[in-house]
Amino acid sequence: MINFRIAFSFIFTLVATGLGICAFQAYRSTKSTGKAVSFLDASLIPPLLGNLIIIGAHTETLAKVGYYLYFLGMDLMVLALVNFTSAYCSVTGKHKTPLKQIIVLLCIDTVQMLMNPFLGHAFDVEPVDVQGSAYYSLIPYIGQSFHRIVIYTIMGATMMIFLVMTIRMPRIYKEKYLVILITMIVTTLWQTFYIFSRTPINRSMIGLGIFGLLAYYFSLFYRPLKLLDRMLSNIASDMPEAMFVFDPNFNCIWINETGLKLTQLGTKDLEKVSEKLEDIFGTIQHSNDVWEANKVIATGESKRYYTITLRSFNDSAQKLAGSFLTIRDTTEEQNKIRAELYRSNHDSLTGLYTKNCFYEQIHKTLRENESTRYYAIFIDIKDFKIINDIFSTAFGDRALIQLANGIRSFMSPRCVYGRIGGDTFGIFMPKEEFKADEVDKALSNFIVKDGQVEYHIFVHMGVYELSNEDSDVPMMFDRAHLAISTISDDYNTHIAYYDKKLREQVLWNQQISASLTEAIETMQLRPYLQPIADADGNVIGAEALARWIHPEKGFMPPSSFIPVFEKNGMIVELDKHMWRCACSILQKWKDRFPVLFISVNISPKDFYFTDVVSDIMSLVKEYGISPADLRIEITETIMMTDAEEKMKLLAKFREEGFIVEMDDFGSGYSSLNLLKDMPVDVLKIDMKFLSSTDNKNRSETIVRNILRLTNELGIDSLTEGVETEVQYEKLSQMGCKMFQGYYFAKPMPVEEFEKFAAKGAKR
Ligand code: C2E
Ligand code: CA
Ligand code: CA
């Protein structure tokens, strides 16, 4: 027969050891309930030890020690249980545990128990026979009943909490509370049974121990796995990605909603999945690791993009256990990326390639078609800024769009074209496709229409033929652009080619730019003076015009170098030199020709690069001449930028006593309107601008009107380019005050002019 004492001693020891280990592990756990579990499990050890002692006790005293350990241990255990319950059920806030009251209650119970040796009110023991030897059974008194009431009340309360939690919690978590609740109920009933049946050896201790172990497991390790599985599977089902799970033989064993939609199969057609997938996406590779591929599926007009990923997984023995396939529809992302790319590569106004993209496409074309001969063509709208100013930017935009569409309509698939800048476009085309005549015709009739407004826009094209070695794309277009400069003032020619002459021109430009400083220092660059006469034909002054007497090239007119320097900004150096020369001449003339003035030219670029007013002021001071003797010639083009600022500068000149002359009136976009606000003293009207336009009568009318206007505005007038006596007389009659032109004299060296002036110089 089994020896119960030994058997239960063994079981109790085992359970106590288990609890000890759990308490230790729980203590080290990082989980929030760790400490509470540790305390609970540790607190279960004293009652177990107490019972172990009771089982093994051979004397009454030892048995009593066991009982004390048991009862006081139970008080501690109940405290730990309360602590554990509030941690496990996360009891916070309003429903705070009445911990203080519980502790007081347990303290009272502990004290009254400890009084038992003196009062004998709680319990006593008596030996009963168990399997032939004495077992000290309990005789409870009132104190013991009090102890039981305390323990049961608190345990009952905790069970209530677990009951509420079980009812209230979502299904997925219920079992976590239910298990604890059931264990508690079973243990309590078992305990009660033990108390009332008065059976020796308190077996319900095992229940208590199991409760401790379960608390440990459910607090620290339990995850509602089944429900978790279901939940994950639900999530996977609703995923926007199509998902498939395959067994090692690549038979589909699971497929989510999206997968079903994608393959247009039902849940019962799982065996058809592999075949169907291959039909749609082609071969899917079953490698051992991860396989990924991007596929494009065209359905009618539209394309759809997919990213396919296959992951294989092995079991613990490294044998293939199955694979998991996801198919993600990336169409929207791809479309977004494509749209973004399109936006960054295409000009938003015209829809043509942007400069960078255009150049890149050319590189590509060149790589792919090595043997083709190409033209790089630069297209520029003449005076686009003026179009914008006179009409509106909306009209300007209209012009750009129309030009872009025009370009597009001429292009074959072998051509590349794009917008290089604001009003400039580029074309890259095989040489044989360029039909100069057709293009020229199209450009001659380029009329922009926007509602009522209609305007003939002038477009220039520069053409550069690539040589075999050419690979620098920006350079090709620089050269094509350069070609335009040869026709930029020509309203009859639309197309210019970069050729040998132009190349030489570029070289020449570089040469003269490099030698400008020297030319100034050695006076190769010097002023020629062209007389200016009054209505009676008397010389009253001169205009200083630059001439370059080149050591190799000889006499050079300003048209061969002024435009070059105006373009590269070196005109400032030249003009400063001319101003200084003029001042020096005026200083020399102080006694000889005190009434003569000299007009100097100021290029619009000068205003960019230097403080013109203070430069000229300091020269006048340096040479001690009167500002009234140095006249300032500016052109109306300076008003094209920062008009207000320029007005201030002109006003400043006049304040300082200079006479300001508006040069070349009638050449640009003269605005008579502007004239009345312009702080100028003299208007220079150039005959060549007038005579070049159609008939004589009309130019006469224009001059007559301008002269009348200047009279009204109190501005003096000077006509330049007067070549004949007839012109001179007519202009005199019309009321012009001053004259300049070959009719009187051509520009001449200073000494010659001095002689000319000394003669009195009436023609
Ligand atoms: P501009 O200031 O309008 O100078 C008048 C130009 O008309 C001069 O040409 C002069 O020789 C020319 N001319 C004078 N009378 C007649 C005539 O009866 N018939 C014809 N057909 N032409 C006549 P030039 O000296 O060749 O100068 C050309 C332009 O170069 C000037 O036009 C001016 O814009 C510029 N330029 C000349 N010297 C300078 C300078 O020192 N600085 C700057 N910034 N520009 C200058
Ligand atoms: Ca001038
Ligand atoms: Ca002029």
TrEMBL record:
UniProt keyword terms in alphabetical order: Membrane, Transmembrane, Transmembrane helix
Domain (EAL): residue spans on this chain: 509-761
Record-linked InterPro entries: Cyclic-di-GMP_PDE-like, EAL_dom, EAL_sf, GGDEF_dom, Nucleotide_cyclase, Rev_trsase/Diguanyl_cyclase
Keyword Transmembrane: yes
Membrane-spanning intervals of the chain: 6-24, 36-55, 67-90, 145-165, 177-197, 203-222
GO MF annotation, one: cyclic-guanylate-specific phosphodiesterase activity
Listed Pfam families: EAL (PF00563), GGDEF (PF00990)
All copies of domain GGDEF, residue ranges: 372-500
UniProt entry tagged with the keyword Transmembrane helix: yes
Protein name per Swiss-Prot or TrEMBL: Diguanylate cyclase (GGDEF) domain-containing protein
Organism expressing this protein natively: Ruminococcus albus
